[in-house]
Amino acid sequence: QVQLVESGGGLVQAGGSLRLSCAASGRTFSGYVMGWFRQAPGKEREFVAAIYWSSSWTYYTDSVKGRFTISRDNAKNTVYLQMNSLKPEDTAVYYCAVGRYHGGPYDYWGQGTQVTVSS
């Protein structure tokens, strides 16, 4: 059974930083893609960043390029999202998810972690 557990959310002032973690378990993820998504109140869930377990490929939505960095630690089966220069519009619940390839469906999701950026 695949489990994804996010942590690291919290309240931060605009311009600050947070690092989210997603601990994955339950299967071998080699060849799979890990994604971060977010959903703000009253808005649809949106893609933030993705990384493959087995390559250096990464992808970001335009609004976070240059501010967020996705990375992974294969030994710990953990994916990270380093978020710098945070803005109030980054406020959302952040979710990690696993899929077979970017652009395809993500099959497993974590429970989410709240990020709140105050102005």
Give the biggest sheet: 7 strands, mixed
Structural class: mainly beta
Give the helices and strands as they follow along the chain.
EEEEEEEEEEE
Which term fits the overall shape? Answer: globular
Distance between the termini: 40 Å
Number of helices: 0
Account of the protein in words:
By secondary structure, this protein is an all-beta fold. The chain is globular and about 40 Å long. The model has no long low-confidence stretch (mean pLDDT 95).
Record the SSE blueprint:
Elements: E1 3-7, E2 10-13, E3 18-25, E4 33-39, E5 46-52, E6 58-60, E7 68-73, E8 78-83, E9 92-99, E10 106-109, E11 113-118
Parallel strand pairs: 2-11
Antiparallel strand pairs: 1-3, 3-8, 4-5, 4-9, 5-6, 7-8, 9-10, 9-11
Keywords:
mainly beta; seven-stranded mixed sheet; four-stranded antiparallel sheet; 0% helix; 54% strand; globular
In brief, what are we looking at here?
By secondary structure, the chain is mainly beta.
